[in-house]
Specification:
Strand order of the largest sheet: 13-12-11-14-10-15
Number of helices: 11
Largest sheet: 6 strands, mixed
Number of strands: 15
Shape: globular
CATH superfamily of the largest domain: L-amino peptidase D-ALA esterase/amidase
Strand content: 25-35%
Distance between the termini: 19 Å
CATH topology of the largest domain: L-amino peptidase D-ALA esterase/amidase
Oligomer: single chain
Helix content: 25-40%
Number of domains: 2
Amino acid sequence: MAVGPDTLPTLHPVAGFKLGIASAGIKKPGRRDLVLMELNPEAAVAGVFTRNAFCAAPVLICKDHLARSSARYLLTNTGNANAGNGEQGMVDAKRCVDAVAQLCNVATEQVLPFSTGVIGEALPVDKILAALPAAKEALAEDNWAEAAVAIMTTDTRPKGACEQLEIAGRTVTITGISKGSGMIKPNMATMLGYVATDAKVDQPLLQQLLSEATERSFNRITVDSDTSTNDSCILAATGTSGVEISSGDEVAAFAAALNRVMLTLAHAIVRDGEGATKFIAVQVEKAASQQEALDVAYTIAHSPLVKTALFACDPNWGRILACVGRAGVENLDLEALQIWLNDVCIVEHGGRAKSYTEEAGQAVMNLEEICIRVVLNRGELAETVWTTDLSHDYVSINADYRS
């Protein structure tokens, strides 16, 4: 299941960034499950990673290598997370990194590994090493769509986004892919995301732009409130367009386009949430602080009672009201706040809105896309979190995940 049309947009190549796909047969024989990405020597690279204390071995290596060198190759395998494997996980990840470095004639520190899949199972290193030459041979700048498919796990559709904009009379391209469907409350980025641009951006500014875009996109989505051990998102700037992003209007225009790409990728993850039948925006307005708005939004978004009511198309508005009340907002004025389903007011003056009818609520709940809007009337800050309903299929997918 997924919400919205299953259409992958045109993913324009980014000069200086190549992708190669191969089959290692990690979980399923014959599946193309290995992606090698090559960056030009002048590229700048930024990254954000999971805050889970049990972060996977490849995450630890990525953070270390990014701090010590400039990346030239990114290696991604699906079917196995290489997380929860202790020292052996580090040994296995390093073997893969060393093999790429030797095959591509670069320093070990210039290779970043990424893994996604089952936690706690040994990484089948020999299968990966055997498939590396084929991945290198397949390197091409126009392989974005194929790579989007190769990095999928429980995803039902590939996820990609692209923007092209004019800066200083030249065209700048920003292209990205992501994967993720379950174990989604990123708390940094997404399960895996790769975005590249042909603009020239110095690394400190690139890291700032990635962190800010992540906060507005991947850090505002949740499917099941679980933060993965492997969440990683990379932004690479090859500089091949000749357009330098450094200050003023150029930064603003580039950042706006990057934010749109990242938000599209984040929304695609929610729309493809495991078992999802609805795409839900939880919008909290007129809060006294950003944290207050997020507390209310996530309390609603994470409520199994709200999520199951959404799946059932049941306008059981009392569940939403209860969430707002338990979100921990101090001195909440019940008389002042309002709660809406799209354009239907369901709560005001401390209880059911006089204008509300069950028929109006039902009409909204029957929709695939719904906005739950809470107006606290305590300040001027607002936040939006995007989430899904909770269906029978979510339980089935995760009960059968390892079978």
